Amino acid sequence: MIQFSDLSLMRGSKMLLQDVNAVVYPGHKAGLIGANGCGKSSLFALIRGELHPEQGDFAIPKDWQIVWVAQETPAVERSALDYVIDGDRRYRALQAQLKEAEESHNGEQIAVLHGLLEQAGAYDIESRAATILAGLGFANDVMNNSVNAFSGGWRMRLNLAQALLCYSDLLLLDEPTNHLDLDAVIWLEKWLQRYTGTLLLISHDKSFLDSTVNEIISVEQQKLVSYTGNYDAYEIQRAERLRLQSLQYQKQQDQIAHLESFINRFGAKASKAKQAQSRVKQLARMETLLPVMADSHFTFRFLVPPKLPNPLVKMEQVKVGYGDKVILEKLQLNLVPGSRIGLLGKNGAGKSTLIKLLAGENAPLHGVYETSAGLSIGYFAQHQLEFLRADDSPLAHIQRLDPKASEQSLRDFLGGFGFRGDDALAKVAPMSGGEKARLVLALTVYQKPNLLLLDEPTNHLDLDMRHALNIALQGFEGAMVLVSHDRYLLSSVCDDFYLVDSGQVQVFNGDLDDYKAWILKPEQSANATDSPKVKPERKNIKRLEAEFRQATQGLRKTITMCDKTMADLHSKLAKMETELSETEIYNAENKMQLKQILAEQAKLKGQLEETEMQWLDAQEQLELQQAEFDLLLN
Questions:
Q1: Count of structural domains, the chain
Q2: pTM to 2 decimals?
């Protein structure tokens, strides 16, 4: 297990965690949450051995294999598939040793290494790597492309694939969904549900946390507070905890007021001096409870647009693409005030292409595309963070939009997005991704758009800011088109879902649960298209089988180890039975030897019983998962 005992952790001069006590048990899947900058990633660095605590102890089993996602991807010419397999360093080391043994014609060593490679899963490693890459959105025809050919976001997916391929006792994932679309998030969620090791997950995605963890560890006031269950359970428990804390805080404030009143009344009286001094000490010793800060630090809303023409955008038989390459065709879509559309679809299907068409970045290749004279577009996409002026402040950015506005009114507006006091005057250059995203959102909201286009707006935003955005979008009176992997946001603010698939954009007749089922069962057509069911293709069956083998690898390994242990114990017990069948062992002079044999026999029987129970548990879990898998295929 992982144990923190009276641990304090600093980064520079900032105290992140102080006198922390917490335990994460083997096999638990814990979500680590808290505001940006509270110390979550630093805690991961501590576990990786990159940081050391200022005081206290941190313990983790020495034999645990710890795996995490690399943050840098070297510019190499290796193929994506080979790069992912490179992440399994034990496999690559065994490969190199085998090559040396073959070159030196060392037959005995060759045989040993083949056995070790089999244990390391060498004979299906390419299949497992390809399955993971496919799940994370890589098409079959790009898996052999060099790493250099991929953008930064796709390279982060390659690093995630490396981590998922490796065997691990502890898996550390820090915001793994930031560079994924909804399809890949759903696939990763399913993979983590079947993961048998210990998981520590940093995420601000409520739905993702709900589906993957059974414990929440929240960083609160420099402490780690554990809550049992998923994120929904955490919200219920925390609300009750805050209520009790508020009552306790108020009670303490009453006690402080009473003590201060006594000191003020009797401090100068000689007859009461001793009692007054005692209360001064009591007041000094009293630990001040922080008042409950349940409200979000972010508060903003969309103002009513000056104009709300109807329709805002009209499309008839529109075709859009890049050059001669058509991405979407036969588009029929009218956007009117109050339209609240969520775009669904697999990676590369054309969701961002449609958003860019609406934003005016792409021109239609064919068809009728009409916009109202009063159209005002608010467009948010991750690439816009790069266009912020590095040497300017948030205040300077918003002053360019409205030079006549007073500085105080602009500061008040920016305060709702977390830019208060000196933060409103700080340069953009050193800001985090979350701070830059908040600034771009602020600039978008300030312009009072009547058509809002949001392409993955929650990347890098913490839970408080996501909540504030959710509330603000629910009050937006214009039309909205949203692409997001955050299902909580999609389900909260969208009235209609459109499926982008096979070059078409059609109404999806279902909710996000129906879409999830469509993604996880590619052999079945979505209800949105009313296509008949078809049997899974052979390539899909192969992919699902490889994915199932990867997911149950830990259970199979446990069963194999238990089989070996039970065989060894049976052999030892049989030898003891032979010794106990000899009449000489019961002679008086062999009393001590008999006693030792009986004691060892009892010990081995206990170990055998324990191993048999472990084997039975693993076997039952494997059979259950096998039954579920067979049901999936049928």
A1: 4
A2: 0.69
